[in-house]
Amino acid sequence: MEPDRFAKLVKKENVTDEGFAINESYRPIALTLQEKFKELKDAPIKNILFVDNLNSKKKAGSKVVFAEIGKIPRRWQDVLHQTTGLYFEFVLTVYRENTANMTRAQIVALIYHELRHIRRDDVGNKIVGHDVEDWYEMYTKLGYNWATTLGDIPDLLGGDVDWDSIEGPAALFTADGEPHKLRVVK
Ligand SMILES: [Zn+2]
Predict the structure, then answer these.
(1) How far does residue 12's CA lie from ligand 1's centre (Å)?
(2) Is 171 inside any structural domain?
(3) What is the pLDDT of residues 84-114, one digit of tens each?
(4) How far are the Cα atoms of 2, 40, 111, 163 from residue 32, in angstroms, in the given order?
């Protein structure tokens, strides 16, 4: 089946009123991030289905969910393969209602964040949790509020930007020495 036809099928809004649309514009970002950051080398980018959720303002508890990545259940991997000829192992969902005010640099950081959830081990690819409340480099170098700040954050795809080149934010800790309350970026 041609990708166009498949896209139209998936784009069709479903009964929960949470329309999904394939968005291939994230794939080149993911591929370029992978070329640049060795910690992403195992992520099977070609086997990720990138979709936007167009309607939901999803929250997990009181926290806004910007994006999430999950493994596609095996039976749906097979159905997708049989209907499209393409093999998808993971689905990365971006919540467009919740990311509408993000800058491009924040979207890039969001894709980086999600890709790091994929880990390869002896039995295959799996989803793992954060090493701190976020990923250590993101927390220390971009700041705990990288997804919500209205200030600039470094563009991880910037030519001379790598983790070593980024100076962390000055105010990771409050005046009383307590860490800022972290927000979970799911
Ligand atoms: Zn996460």
Answers:
(1) 27
(2) no
(3) 899 999 999 999 999 999 999 999 999 999 9
(4) 25, 10, 11, 15
Domain span at residue 121 reads 3-131
Q: What is the DSSP string of 90-126?
A: EEEEEEHHHHTT--HHHHHHHHHHHHTTEEEETTEEE
Contacting residues for 79 by C-beta, under 8 A, at least 6 apart? none
Query: Measured in angstroms, how far is the CA atom of residue 11 from the centroid of ligand 1?
Result: 25
- Model-level pTM? 0.84
What is the 83 CA–ligand 1 centroid distance (Å)?
30
44, part of any domain: yes
CA distance linking residue 59 with residue 113, whole number of Å? 17
Asked if residue 173 is part of any domain, the answer here is: no
Structure tokens at 6: 């498949």
Q: How many residues does the chain have?
A: 186
Tens digit of each residue's pLDDT (9 = 90 or more) over 29-54: 999 999 999 999 989 999 999 999 99
Pairing mode of beta strands 48-53, 20-22: antiparallel
CATH of the domain at 66: 3.30.2010
How far apart CA 20 and CA 9 sit, in angstroms, is: 10
CA–centroid distance, residue 106 to ligand 1 (Å): 14
